[in-house]
Fold this protein.
Amino acid sequence: MIPYFQIKSYIRHWLHVVDEHSIHSPFFFDFYEKVIRNKNKSESFEDIERVRKKLLESAMEIDVQDLGASSAYFKNEKRTLSKVAATSISPATVCEFLYRIVHYQQATSVVELGTSAGITTLYLSKNLSSLVTTFEGHSVLSDIALTNFESFKTKNIKLIQGNIDTTLPDFLQSPAKINFVLMDANHRYEPTIRYFQLLSRRMAEKGIIVIDDINHSKEMARAWKELRHHDLVYGSVDLYRCGILFFDPTLNRQHYTWAL
């Protein structure tokens, strides 16, 4: 059963949705046309979707401990890989949307928090000019993801396994700037705010952070509302499933609600 909070949030979202006719910013109009509306596939993802299909059909049992918010789908740690894939991997439409952002930016430095089985990571890596650094706390899922990366012979993915509370601060000791971040790991208020604060210090001037599941719970909605008003955020987009934060100071603190 869908929680009442999510139903209410969904209705509120759709009451505020606007289309291209209400977008007056040249940047956001261009972003809307080329990233949100542009569904023409300039890249083939059939090879990745075949891997997703195998995962969805796998009866292999794995032990997965919830490191973030408790799962609404599982009551214990032993789960079939097919069910994990069905509940934790973003749909193809969302993966393609994330790829379009990275391609639009021509992002050279991409960070993903929450590798899972690596499907979204493979989409992000399709932009060959990007180095994708992905973080996963579960060793079993990390091994599955690595196997998938190896099958594609990818050269632009670096997987960092371990507790993100430790591995992310270590990674961010480097002064290198980051163009794009996908936060899809710990769906709770405190870690979301903490990870954002760490990452925001390393974002490029026109960097973008996407926060997944902003309506997963009241605390995630609270985190989203707080972060879109952060001093370093100059533009934001609410897509209901996820939120986009823009670090470009020329955007003059604009906010939009769109349908994905």
Residues 25-42+90-257 form a domain with the Rossmann fold fold (CATH 3.40.50.150). Strands lie at 61-63, 78-80, 109-113, 131-136, 157-161, 178-183, 203-212, 235-238, 242-246, 254-257.
